[in-house]
């Protein structure tokens, strides 16, 4: 009886250690600040860091509020990351931040806390509540088919900066 119990324990230890090795060998993609929104874009880590860089570089800050388990966010992210025009503008014209949590700045939720939500903050650190999407009940949300409007709004944010110089 003792021999069979020891044999069973030895078998369990062997199986569990082999399973642990197999799990460790599984390749996982590195988690970056892009979170899938665009790996070639330089992303800031916090809202405060974004405000600092926006002010210092005289570029607008684009804040994307999203959640990993939101199907609408995932659909928007997929199209956003494939759109070359938006990726180029985000990479070269904006300070970029994507958040999976709310900030303490209530100006970033002028019409409520929902996702996906995209807002622009100009270099003077003013949230541009006048740059909206097409939905009257969720002013700052965009769906995948709204990417042309998002691109136009990104251009609008860039033009506003140029006109203030």
From TrEMBL:
- Asked if Metal-binding is a keyword of the record, the answer is no
Keyword list (alphabetical) reads: Signal
What is one cellular component GO term in this UniProt entry? Answer: endoplasmic reticulum
Q: Which GO terms describe its molecular function?
A: dystroglycan binding
Does the record bear Signal in its keywords? yes
This protein's superkingdom? Eukaryota
Position of the signal peptide: 1-20
Q: Which Gene3D superfamilies does this UniProt record tie to the protein? A: Glutaredoxin
Record's SUPFAM superfamilies? Thioredoxin-like (SSF52833)
UniProt cross-references to PANTHER family, sorted A to Z: ANTERIOR GRADIENT PROTEIN 3, ANTERIOR GRADIENT PROTEIN-RELATED
Question: Which family does the similarity line name?
Answer: Belongs to the AGR family.
Protein's name in the database: Anterior gradient protein 3
* Gene behind this protein: Agr3
